[in-house]
Amino acid sequence: MKKFKLFFCILLSLTIFNTLKSAEQIDPIKVDWSFKGLLGKFDRASLQRGYQVYNEVCASCHSMQYLSYRNLGEPGGPEFSEEEVKAIAAGFEVTDGPDAQGEMFTRSGRPSDKFVSPYPNVNAAAAANGGAYPPDMSVLVKARKGGANYIYSVLVGYEDPPPGVTLDEGVYYNKYMTGNKIKMPNNLSDGLVEYADGTEATVDQMAKDVTTFLSWAAEPELESRHKTGLKVMLYLILLSILVFLSMKKIWSRVNSEE
Amino acid sequence: MDKSEKKTTTRRDFLFTTSYTVGAVGLGAVIWPLIDQMNPDKAQKALATTEVDISQIEPGKSITVLWRGKPVFLKRRTQEEILEARSVSLTDLPHPEKDEERVKSGKDEWLVMLGVCTHLGCVPLSNKGDYKGWFCPCHGSHYDLSGRIRKGPAPKNMEIPKYEFVDANTIKIG
Amino acid sequence: MSEKEYVPKSKAGKWFNDRLPLLSLASHLTDYPTPKNLNYWWTFGGILTFCLLTQIITGIVLAMHYVAHADLAFASVEHIMRDVNYGWLIRYIHSNGASMFFLAVYIHIFRSLFYGSYKSPREIIWIIGLMIYLLMMAAAFMGYVLPWGQMSFWGATVITNLFSAIPLVGDSITTWLWGAYSVDNPTLTRFFSLHYLIPFLILGLVVLHIWALHIPGNNNPVGIDIKKPSKDTVPFHPYITIKDAFALLLFSIIFAGFVFFAPNVLGHSDNYIQANPMVTPAHIVPEWYLLPFYAILRSVPDKLGGVILMFGAIFILFVLPWLDTSKVRSSVYRPIYRQFFWILIVDVLVLGYVGAMPAEGIYLVLARVGTVYYFLHFIVILPVVGYFEKTEPVPLSISEPVLSGSADYSMAKKDNEKI
């Protein structure tokens, strides 16, 4: 009876909530990401391609200041080999110093360096992009409500504005963007990058790859989290059963005896 | 107490023992992350190697650079200093090591070592002490021109870090 | 229920115990006579202790890596998530642990409401419990500020601005809380200091809470006093400990589910954007566990009125033992009040829901109705129902319920002495 009432209350509340829910924004496209689900893992090849898209397309405006080049070789990520990581890092010029003379100097990057940002600070980034700061992409996927689906949807959601919608200079129409107006132009076009593994670089493919890469960047612990989580769950269930049986035994002293 | 009752008791004991054991294993597994979090993190472990420009160092002079939060002494020794370091008999040393083992062959003038006293971690002063090398002001350990302990409480010679000559003018430590 | 004097068997034990009676305390805690008919709603006290200890331990660990500075806090949290060994695990346990803590405390509070555990002679236990709850809210709020994301910053701004509603000195108090002219670095550092302090205050209050509990002993689902300890009670250990352990494990499975498979669903995505004093997020919402109070705050069109009502919603609970006029504790025997109890639960859930929605249209109406009902329940319904309600017959003792059909309270005959 009591349990029924509790259940009823929750049901009633949920019904009220659901009828009240209004649909003002179109939901992002649902993609069947390999990293979703309880045991989800990243697709290594997609992560590596995604890094390429980030590096060749996004990185000219968007920083990823919380990532280091060494992360690219760590387990659970794109898992580039040690040499590849060194080569990637060496391709960037890093400002270091001050040296013994007190001067800042540039040197080639090392795996331990953080990703080099395209602009020296937020103000410079905003100024170079019509006043809109291209957000840092380190945790972007976690910082947007729809997560990976939303990022992907925005990347493929550019279209001509519907009649009656006028756009200012440097503003673009996007189906999925909150408010539909976005200051980032549609940067993806078929064949824009040349994938090393021969995958055809369609807009959809690049959007998926770079979203996968950004998802990993936001949650580099995802794979070990899933793996550890599974073990923890199995352990807790096992111990629960043992403790439940122990409890039955102990309480049988009180309950069963006549 | 009849037989069947005895049987229940052992089964019960087995159940309790298993529960306790499994519980204890879990507790142990929980404690490890709490301990490991205090070990050097991934950023620390990946810490950069340090490259040092040695072109400005005159013979007989030394410089100190920071590597992994510790000072590293780079001393360019004169021929006399090298000879003096190599003339010492190994039997006179508390921690016997040949000078040749402490430098890269062919680059005998360069002594590169961690500037940390092996006693309790202070930084010794250079060109001080009874052996013309280093002297630790904390507890009076004397080191010679090869950074070897000669007198005082320190148990070992000063440590040689991993390093290599990138080119004639650059040393990479780490 | 008088306890026999405990005398340690060993000589050394006796020597120590005469000087500091820790062994007597341990003996009291293990033998503590507990009503044998406690159901699973009574396991949340133990679960809450677990939550508090989990938060303290993981919090101490996080403080080893966190940097309380407006420029570095956000980055230091990312450092914990990315570089510190098991940092992601410890942080997710801590952030989800706060939610789990509140989930458990709400069940604990509503259990008390249903079974009348706040009534005489347990008023002090109830009041200490409410003080713990208030401190929990303070700790949770300040903790949420520490990552210095957008929600941290704007949550802090909104909540500290509540104090500006106080007439005459409001603005000065708000500035004093900030240590600046807006939420800024001084605010962050003092919140960090207090966030570290409060859990230990809670720990102290928990000791008092349990101490006060051990004077009259536990209430129970039947709500009557223990008549014959030998028949009605079991020793705390092993009977209650094993039951608490089992319930705790089930709770941990839910907890672990959040930590490992949905660590961010209870949080807000905007908090992964670094705090920006120039831009307010579109929807500012507190964490779920504060939503009903937030709804009450927003239901009032007057600034001071809203603040008073919000705090009133909590402080009314302090006088609850004296608002309830019924002599019967357990709602099991109170057919009318029982209905209102469930309505109150729905009311609080609705308030929580509208607290997360924009304060306009139907939501505002619902919030107002919900708020009025909330106060109506405590100020009018509770005293009046208790006065007029015809309660059902209450059993004579825990071990011999007069009513058949309540299978929960099975008749157990064995004495705990024999065990």
Summarize it.
By secondary structure, chain A is mostly helical. Helices cover 42% and strands 5% of the residues of chain A.
Task: List key phrases describing it.
heterotrimer, A: 258 residues, mainly alpha, two-stranded antiparallel ribbon, two-stranded antiparallel sheet, 7 helices, 42% helix, 5% strand, B: 174 residues, alpha+beta, 4-stranded antiparallel beta sheet, 10 strands, 26% helix, elongated
| Oligomerization state | heterotrimer
Q: Termini separation of chain C (Å)? A: 18 Å
Query: What proportion of the residues of chain C is helical, as a percent range?
Result: 55-70%
- The CATH architecture of the largest domain in chain C can be named as Up-down Bundle
Low-confidence stretches of chain C: 402-419
Elements of chain A, N to C (H/E): HHHEEHHEEHH
Kindly describe this structure:
The complex is a heterotrimer of chains A (258), B (174) and C (419). By secondary structure, chain A is mostly helical. Helices cover 42% and strands 5% of the residues of chain A. In chain A, a hairpin with an 8-residue loop joins strand 1 and strand 2. Chain B has helices at residues 3-36, 42-45, 79-86; strands at residues 50-53, 62-67, 70-76, 110-114, 125-126, 134-136, 141-143, 149-151, 163-167, 170-173. At the A-C interface, helix 1 and helix 7 of A face helix 4, helix 5, helix 11 and helix 15 of C.
List the helices and strands and how they pair.
The complex is a heterotrimer of chains A (258), B (174) and C (419).
Chain A: H1 2-20, H2 44-56, H3 82-90, E1 93-96, E2 105-108, H4 122-128, H5 147-156, E3 172-173, E4 181-182, H6 203-218, H7 222-255
Antiparallel strand pairs in A: 1-2, 3-4
Chain B: H1 3-36, H2 42-45, E1 50-53, E2 62-67, E3 70-76, H3 79-86, E4 110-114, E5 125-126, E6 134-136, E7 141-143, E8 149-151, E9 163-167, E10 170-173
Chain C: H1 11-19, H2 22-31, E1 33-35, H3 44-63, H4 73-82, H5 87-115, H6 123-145, H7 150-161, H8 170-178, H9 185-214, H10 229-232, E2 233-235, H11 236-261, H12 291-299, H13 303-315, H14 320-323, H15 335-356, H16 361-388
Antiparallel strand pairs in C: 1-2
Helix pairs in contact in C: 3-5, 3-9, 3-11, 4-5, 5-6, 5-11, 6-7, 6-9, 12-13, 12-15, 12-16, 15-16
